Amino acid sequence: MLRYAIIIEKAADGGYGAYVPDLPGCIGMGATHEEVVQNMIEGIKFHLDGLKEEGLPIPSAISEAENLVIEYAA
Question: pLDDT tens digits for 48-65?
């Protein structure tokens, strides 16, 4: 089992985009948060299959993501 961090960004049109820092070029989009997550699961598998077919190494999952809560007075 592999575990990759994904970064999810809300788009101006209300949809979502996502990418995997440890897998350059592996991106996905979706109309909802749930859809982009599902698309990323499929996209990561597709990306890894492509690397395997090309005889390339599977990158290690080294990135982490965290949400920070910061007190800030403007």
Answer: 999 999 999 999 999 999
